[in-house]
Amino acid sequence: MNPQLVPLGLSTVLFRHKRAVLTVFFGIVLAGAAYLALATPNYQSVAQLVVLFGDRSIPDVSHQQVTELTPADRHEIVLAHAAMLDSHDLAEETISSFGIGTLYPAIVANPPTRWTQMDEAVKQFGGKLSVDVGTQDNIITVSFMHPDKKLAHDVVRKLIELYIAQQTKIYQNPQSDFMAKEVKDADARLNRAQTALEQFKGKWRITDYDQEVQDLLQQRGDVDSSLQTARANLEQAQHKQKDIEQLIKHVPTMQPETAGGEKYRSIDDAEARLADLKSKQSQMLATYSPNSPALAQLNAAIRTAEEEAAARRAEVNGRSASAANVVHQTLQTDYLRTSAEAESNAQPVRILTEQLQGIDQRLGDLQQNRGTYNDLVREQQIAEEAYKTLSTQYTDARIKDNLNRQRISPATVISQPTMPYRAARPRKLVTAVACVCAAVILALATGLALEARDDKFTTAEQVAYLLDVPVLASFEQRRNPPLRGLLSYGGSR
Questions:
Q1: Which of 21, 18, 1 has the alpha carbon at shortest distance from 457?
Q2: Mean pLDDT to the nearest integer, 266-274
Q3: Which of 70, 199, 279, 442 is most deeply packed, by most CB within 10 A?
Q4: What is the pTM of this model?
């Protein structure tokens, strides 16, 4: 059996190895005291920032509906801001603002060989910088420690200024120069589209395409209705003209003049005497014999009267001319009137036909160029919409530029960097207590380790415990009496 397995009192163990235990204990305590005496004090400056979300972060210039963020999204945004504060570039820029020699003169005095002075400065800067984010809030706590209390305060202030400038550049970079160029290009495109459309309208004499087509269709309907009426009137006049023409062919132009007046009195007198003689002849035939001298004389007088009447009639017929036929003249007048009416009705037909052809030609031209006109109008509308959109975005970009110049950002400082009044590192009381506790623990561990490595018997109790025999005598000087249990156990054998 191994001797170290025999239980011993802690005080006995420590007493046996008191020199080593005290050496370890006082060594650690002296090391801690030397650290507290020789360590350079570091002063800590602390500042707090709050990150705003939604329409409370910056003035709303786009007038767009703001999307409500979830708590997880808010926390991720706060972590992103904290990462920006703890970034390598921001630390390097902050160090460059003060200079490496100002913040870390030891690096300049003893520059590193494996990397640059700036890399070493950034490394030490990151070790002294603390960026803390709560789990459920939007508060960021920034702290920095430095042997110079004023530099610690100024570094935190400069770090926050550079952070605000950087995050406004990242989150709200409006790219106003790019937007200005796009607006200029959109304006040139709109001018080209408007010029092409105006030239097309001027070439085809178009003011309002749809309105003109509608007016032309309505005008065509009116002209077509008037044309149909004019054609109906023309056909009616032409039919009437043909009917009168047929009648004129069957009506004689001249007709004989009827007897009457002074011109025909000699004939009337001769015929009246002849009628009287024939009346006497009929009366005398009733009383006289046909062969009687009186009747023969009467017959001779009748023949003379007949010859005279015939001569008078022939004379009158030779002297009188045929008169114009009144019916023929009336028909001729109606024919002329109907011809004039037909001619007057033919003129509107020609005019209305030409108008209808012109309207149809215009409608054909408009229909043929409908696609080109629609393309030009569509191009103008697209160019106009693009110009309006880009102009609005350019206006927003210029406003955001002004916001950036005024350092208006979602992150706002709610607690300015503090000016430390006492050193934050080292913590003397905590360090002293920690050194004493560490010294006690390591001293005990040292004593126990040395006892575990020692294989010699040092007490009578070890011998009695291991050999199971009583101890009769021992050559040692003990302060405490032996354990009664061991002695009684040994005596029973």
A1: 1
A2: 75
A3: 442
A4: 0.43
